[in-house]
Each structure stands twice: as C-alpha cells, then as structure tokens.
Amino acid sequence: MIIAGIDIGSLTTKVAILKNGTMVSHAIERTGVNTNQIARRLLDEALGNSGLSFGDIDKVIATGYGRISIPFAHKQITEITCNAKGVNHFYPKAKMIIDIGGQDTKVIKMGDKGRVENFLMNDKCAAGTGRFLEVAAQTLEVKLNDLGKLSLKANKAVEISSTCTVFAQTEIVSLVAKQIPRENIIAGLHEAIARRVFSLFSCLNPEGEVVMTGGVAKNAGVVKALENLIKRPLLIPKNPQILTAIGAALLGHDGIINF
Amino acid sequence: MKQVLEKFAKVLEEPYKWLSSWKLANRKKVIGCLPMYIPEEIIHAAGMLPVTLLGNKEPVTLADKHLLTFICEELRSSYDMLMKGKFEFLDGVVIPLICDQIRFTSDFWDMDHPFPFFHQIWLSFRVDDMGKKFLISEFKRFKSHLEEFEGASIPLEAIEKSINIYNENRSLLRKVYDLKRTKPGLLSADDIVKLVTSSMLMPKEEHSKLLVEFLSEVEKATAYTKDKIGVILIGHPCSPPEKKILDLIEELGAIILNDDLFTGYRYFNTDTKLMDDPIESLANHFLDNIPCPIKHYPGHFLNVDRTTPDYPDFVINMFNKRGAKGVINLGVMYCDPYDFEYPYLRERLEKEKIPLLNIRTGLESTSLETIRTRLGAFLEMLQA
After folding, report:
1. Which 8-state DSSP code applies to residue B273?
2. Which residues contact A148 (CB under 8 A, 6 or more apart)?
3. Residue B151 Rama label (left phi>0; alpha psi -120 to 50; beta)
4. At B80, which helix (H) or strand (E)?
5. Of A65, A81, A117, the CB nearest to B380
C-alpha cells in the first residue's frame, strides 16, 4: 500500500511517501503563495525519486495550514494529530512534543499509542518561532543554518529585552554597534526563544520523554537552551521537519480516524 | 422557514434605525439597557420599550480617547457607538454594575452624553438571603426612578403582565432550541444567536408572534442526521459570538448540544416564577438563574453548603446531561469575572477528565485558519 502524507506549512511544504508502512521517499521545499501547485509538484518529485507515479498512490493525506486547498487529498487531518502519530512511531515511550516551526510553535502531550491528550499553540506572535531566527539571521548577515554552531562558541548569552521579532531587529543592530560579539547575541536570541517556548510547554504539566520536531530542532543552540530550561535531554529525530508528513501517511495507513 | 428567518435578520441589519422608526410610529419611549440582567419587565410595565445595547463590528475610533486598555470589546464598541451618535433616539439608558469594566465606565455615559433618564443599578453578587434583600431594594429604587421619570406609578399588576409576556417569549425560544437539538442540521448555532439578539432589539410581543410563525415552519421541516461530535459551548458572557466561528465549529463536524452564552441558552433557559410580589419574583429570577461568574455562592466559599451548583458544577452537569464529548470556551479579552472563574473551572474539568478547548475571540483572536487548526485538532482528539 502506497500512502503519501503532505504537510503544507506556512513556510515549507513536506512530502513523505510510505510503501507498506516504510518511508521510501521524502521532499521539502518552501511553500510560496500557491499551495495547490507546490503540493502536487513536490509530490511528483518525491514519487519520481522512488520510481513511482501519481497513479500508484492509494491514499493522500493532507495536513498543515494549507491542507484544505489540496483537491486530490482523500482526507485532511490537523498537524497536531499527525505530529503525535509520527513521533509515537519512532519514539513509542515519548510523552511530550515541542514543535517549533516556521511561523508557529506547538506543544503536545500524548497519551497511549500517540493519542493526543492535550495541546497548546502559539500562533499569535512570531517571537517564539522560526521566523524570529530568520529575521535575526538576516539582520546579523549570517546564514540561518549557521546560527546554531555560532551560538555554541559564545562565552556569554546577552539578554534580549524585546519581546517582538520586529523590535528585536533594532535591538540587535544596537548591540552590534556596541561591539557585542555576534555569537553572544545569537546565544541571547536562542535563550529568548527557548524561554517563550518553555513557558508554553510548562502549561501542559509535562512529564516523561520529550521529542523536538520542526525545522528549528536543527539548531543546536536552541536545543541546548531549551534543554537547560526543561532539565532533560531533547530527543531529536534524524529529519525533524518531516515527522508530521510521516505521521499523516501513517494515519492514512491505519485508517484510525473516521469522520 | 428561510423567509421567516429573514424577518429576524432584517431587524439586525440596522437595529437602531429600525428602532428610531418604531419609536416615531408608536410614540413610545425607548430605554437602552447595557448587558445584562436588567429587570426589563419593569420598564416594559411602564409602557416603554427596553432594548439591549450591543456593540457592532465597526472599528472603534472615538472610544479609545476615553477608555483604558482593559475595557472589554463589547463595552468599548457600544461606547464608541454612543460617541458616534448611534443612540440619539434613546430616551434613557440603564447600566447594570456587574463588573469592574462597566463600573469604571458607566459614569462616562451620563457625563459625555446625558439622556433624559439615566440609571445605574446594582445587582447582588451574593446569592443568599442578604443578597436577595439588597436586590429587591435595588429593583424598588429602579421602579421609583422610572415612575418619577414617567410621572406615573407602575402598578404591580402591570409588572405581572409584563413578566408573563417575557416568559412567553422565553418559552418559545426554548421550544426552538429544543427543536435544534432534535433536528440537527436544520438550524445553525448562528441562527439561534439571530433569534435571541432580535428578541433583545424589538418588542417581545412582536417577536413572539414571529417565533410562533417560525416554529410552525420548523416543526414541519425534516433534518438530515449525520454523525456529529457533541460539544458544550461556554463563554461570551455579554456579547454575541462571531458567526464565522460558530459556523466553523459546525462545519468541522461538531454539534452544540447546549451552551450558556448570553445570546443563547442563558437568555431564555427559565421563566420568572410569579409569586405574590412581582418585584420579589424578578429578584428570584436573577438569583435562581443558571450560575454565572459574577455570582458568588457563600455556602460554597465557606464550605458549609454545596447544594446550590456553582459555575463549574453547572458546566459539568450540562456536559453529563447532554452526553457531550468536550467543552469549548469562547473567551473574550478583558472579562475579569470570567478570567477569575476560568482557572477554577479548568481545574474542575481536568479533575472530571472533561476535555476543554479555549479559543480567544474578537480582535485579540488569531486568524480563522489557526482557530480552524485548534478546533480541528480538538475534535480529532475527542474522536480518538
């Protein structure tokens, strides 16, 4: 059975193709403005990479922000449920998920078999999301992917007082003007984002193992700052961005949800 | 059925224009009442028309000059409408001092725009004998002030008659509400809001006539039944919830088995029981009505008597009685009574293992798409 999970996020779209429950291909690209186009194109790309075609697919499950605009999807399931399913598949003992995406942050508490017990989202303000880091990287003129390793070289994390992504830009510029080392500024930014995510996470009365998903999990500096606050190691999947797409495909496989 | 619904919707299109023409045609006085719990029957018995002053969707521009940040959107909007001259047709305004927000701003109404009649009425926050005595004295004071304004006394028999007219309207609204439950899909949650808000803005007698006509249509109609997830809706204590959110809840596969919204079940759930003294009857109606975050039950607080249900008890009972799967709270910003009650409510629901979703509505809310994700995930959670 061939099932495709498509996660159309506000910043990036992810596709995972499962053949009899095992992932055979995946792809990721920036979503852009036309969610319908990117979904189909990325799906075809992933199919091509595994020697399959659209006609081979038994089911398509769409998730993420753009899930309602995919006409060829058999079912739409929210990314909360899909993320939990995906995480539970690889980490059956895990209880908590922290997912920091491009423009939103989710924390999820799981019951047995990856069932969602409770969840919270921060989607009102970009300050606790990947967007915050994107803006910071741009302002500091460094590559987004270098933020993590640069921050690990810091000897001190500077206190960032702005709670707003936009105003933080101004603050960064003034810190650079004061000759504060870039690494220390970045470490401070990582602590700021970790604090915000941690306060959301704490509201769920967390317990047990914690898995981190979403693009920001690739940033070692944020991971370290978060681990210092939650006081336990974060489990990071090999490819943290596609867990939700995998979860979507798994749900299609199990046929668990019947609306 | 759609045609009768349109008659209700017409009243809501431009309610205050409609009321101005009604006033001219009928030569009666119109008294605006801020939400909620004002004993309108006394105004009705004096031969005047009480109407509820609700905010609207226009951007607030003038009110911000006078009001502090922590005033809820509903009050901010209705005050803005006052400043913009939308309430010129009113002969008077009555303001219930039910929360800090309204208490701190009620004087502005009289200062910035004096009306021929202006009255601030205290309600009793305590639900006990002491509170009842106070409430009766406040209602009597209100009655005297109205009599002074009208230049004529309000006979107790007239108040009794008005109570019956109001009860008739409540009973008809309850009938529609029950039909909505038994014929899912026929009426939307927003349809109920339209029916209740139109009742707040027109003479009860006329509204009841429309309801009778509407009921005969609804009783004839058949509805499709589809497997839906039953939820209880709470929140929005003093304002109508947004149509787009109600529609979204139903679109995603939930059915609202019961609610306690101001423009919903709360408005018509029980009749005023007529006793010898109609003023006492009105006082009892407030005290015995379904719990509300502004009501304080001293027996609970002192841990000596839990026979009267408090607000969380009420929500839990609603949930169990209707066999619902979850509770959705439509929270409004800057509602102190509700915010103070909410942590206690959440704790009690957690203890009973009742799933609860909190959605912020109004200008402070997130986009509809993010609400869609939250609602969707919550309903998926309830189904698993």
Report:
1. P
2. A218, A219, A220, A221, A222, A223
3. left
4. helix B73-83
5. A81
* d(C-alpha B369, C-alpha A96), whole Å: 24
A128 token code pair: 């606790």
ipTM here:
0.90
> What b-and-e string marks burial along A28-49, b requiring 16 or more CB atoms within 10 Å of the CB?
beebeeebeebbbebbeebbee
pLDDT band at A258 (very low <50, low <70, confident <90, very high): very low
Structure tokens at B112: 């910035």
Angle between helix axes B368-383 and A79-90 (nearest 10 degrees) is 50
DSSP-derived 3-state class of residue B232: strand
The residue ranges of DSSP E strands in B19-130, in sequence order, are 30-33, 49-52, 92-96, 117-121
Give the integer Cα–Cα distance in Å for B270 and B288: 9
Burial letters B222-234, b for 16+ CB under 10 A, else e: eeeeeebbbbbbb
Q: How far is CA B380 from CA A148, B107, B296, B343, in A?
A: 35, 48, 36, 24
- Model confidence pTM above 0.80: yes
Tell me the one-letter amino acid at A48.
Answer: G
> Using CB atoms and an 8 Å cut-off, which of residues 45-104 of chain A contact chain B?
65, 68, 77-81, 104
C-beta of residue A161 within 8 angstroms of C-beta of residue A136: no
Rounded average pLDDT over A137-152: 94
Q: Is A115 on the interface with B (CB under 8 A)?
A: yes
**What's the CA gap between A211 and A217, in Å, rounded?**
10
Task: State yes or no: pLDDT of B183 exceeds 90.
Answer: no
Between the CA of residue B83 and those of B60, B86, B103, B104, what are the distances in Å?
A: 10, 8, 18, 17
Residues comprising chain B, all counted: 384
Q: What angle do CA B86, B88, B92 make, to 5 degrees?
A: 115
Interval B205-216: pLDDT, tens: 999 999 999 999
Rounded to a whole number of angstroms, the distance from the CA of A230 to the nearest CA of chain B is: 23
For residues B67-87, give the mean pLDDT: 92
SS (H, E, C) A119-184: EEEECCCHHHCHHHHHHHHHHHCCCHHHHHHHHCCCCCCCCCCCCCHHHHHHHHHHHHHCCCCHHH
Residue type at B68? L
How many other C-beta atoms are found inside a 10 Å radius of the C-beta of residue B57?
A: 6
The answer to whether the CB of B228 falls within 8 A of the CB of B256 is no
Chain A interface mutation, best of B370, B379, B382, highest count of A Cβ atoms under 10 Å = B370
The owner of tokens 């039950």 is B297
A229 to each of A151, A181, A251, how far by Cα in Å? 17, 24, 33
**Phi/psi of residue A16, nearest 5 degrees:** -130, 130
